[in-house]
Write a structure and sequence with these properties.
This protein is 58% helix and 5% strand. By secondary structure, it is mainly alpha-helical. It folds into 2 domains: 136 residues, no CATH class; 106 residues, Cytochrome Bc1 Complex, Chain D, domain 2 (Orthogonal Bundle). The strands form 2 sheets. Strands 1-2 form a two-stranded antiparallel sheet. A two-stranded antiparallel sheet has the order 3-4. Strand 1 and strand 2 form a beta hairpin. It binds heme C. The site of heme C (HEC) has 25 residues, from helix 9, helix 10 and helix 12.
């Protein structure tokens, strides 16, 4: 009969397995402060103690059935520290007398079975696996090695760099080549809020800058409204330096200008104007001659 693994070892193993399991499925370490994690730990601890208690009963029952000699041997073996037993069970070959001890007490047609130590190569592989696991998990948790978030960050930066490279070499968008595309409206809105809304209001209703939702225009430089907006972004206002030449100054790229112009076109041509009664700025300039809703192709 073999001495049993101390309950503390089982507890540590179960606790470590729980941490690994939670860490794999929760994806961050927030579970350490979660009530569910600690409830699982408490339940697992209770179950380990119950299993150990049942083990105690089986152990004492089997102990009573041993001969005096076997009892003495068992007590001596039990006095050895756990780690020593573990080491010997992995690396020490048993004697014939010990083999006697290991015969499992069931048989069929005279065939009996030994409760033998596992092959050394198997154990070696197993312990290698354990060490690899510990190294890999610590590397994953505490270093940059093979960490998905770090790898994502790296790839993301590489992509940004290649976009920047592309923008440097890609043909510049000018008032000659800019095209209206409704799929730009959404992004154009975000850019408008960041660059223009301080002066023209979130919805283009006007403020320091004129109302962009009505048919009155101070600057009428192009033949259609979309390109007129783009022209303003490229060149700024010839009358008022507050309206800067965003594209020529390099504050925004031609591509972003195309997106912003699409959004302003949408405000001006596709949404109802924000009138003075609705809090919009008073019309400035003259009614423009361009035909409603037709951006130049
Ligand atoms: C610092 C304030 C300010 C900011 C920021 C600003 N504008 Fe203006 N904008 C003005 C002023 C002032 C005018 C009127 C210029 C004039 O009198 O010719 C103007 C004029 C315009 C016009 C022509 C309106 C007309 O009636 O002729 C357009 C189009 C325009 N802005 C679009 C934009 C867009 C798009 C942005 C964001 C990229 C922007 N503006 C950012 C102040 C601003």
């Amino acid at each position: 009969m073999k001495p049993r693994t101390p309950v503390i070892v089982n507890l540590i193993v179960v606790f470590v397995l729980l941490i690994i399991g939670y860490d794999m499925f929760v994806q961050n370490s927030s579970f350490l402060s979660s009530i569910y994690f600690w409830a699982t730990v408490v339940i697992a601890t209770i179950m380990v103690f119950i299993a150990h208690g049942i083990g105690d009963l089986i152990e004492s029952d089997r102990f009573l059935k041993l001969s005096e000699e076997e009892k003495a041997q068992y007590i001596a073996e039990k006095k050895k520290p756990f780690y020593k037993r573990l080491w010997e069970s992995a690396f020490k070959k048993q004697s014939n007398a010990e083999e006697e001890d290991m015969i499992i007490d069931h048989g069929f047609d005279g065939i009996t079975e030994l409760d033998n130590s596992l092959p050394k190569w198997w154990l070696g592989l197993f312990y290698f696996g354990c060490v690899f696991c510990v190294v890999y998990i610590s590397a994953y948790a505490f270093t940059d090695f093979a960490h998905p978030l770090k790898e994502y960050d790296k790839e993301y930066k590489a992509q940004l760099a290649s976009i920047e490279e592309y923008e440097k070499t890609a043909p510049k968008i000018t008032v000659e080549t800019a095209k209206y595309d409704p799929s730009n409206i959404e992004e154009g809105k975000a850019l408008f809020l960041a660059n223009c809304a301080t002066c023209h209001g979130d919805n283009g209703k006007g403020g320091i800058g004129p109302n962009l939702t009505d048919d009155y225009w101070i600057n009428q430089k192009e033949k259609d409204v979309f390109h007129n907006i783009f022209w303003m972004l490229e060149n700024g206002s010839p009358n008022n330096p507050a309206m800067r030449a965003f594209i020529k100054e390099g504050t925004i790229s031609g591509k972003d200008g195309e997106k912003i112009a699409a959004f302003v076109f949408h405000l001006n041509q596709e949404l109802p104007p924000v009138t003075q009664a609705q809090g919009g700025a008073a019309p400035q300039g003259e009614v423009a001659p361009w035909v409603k809703g037709t951006p130049r192709k």
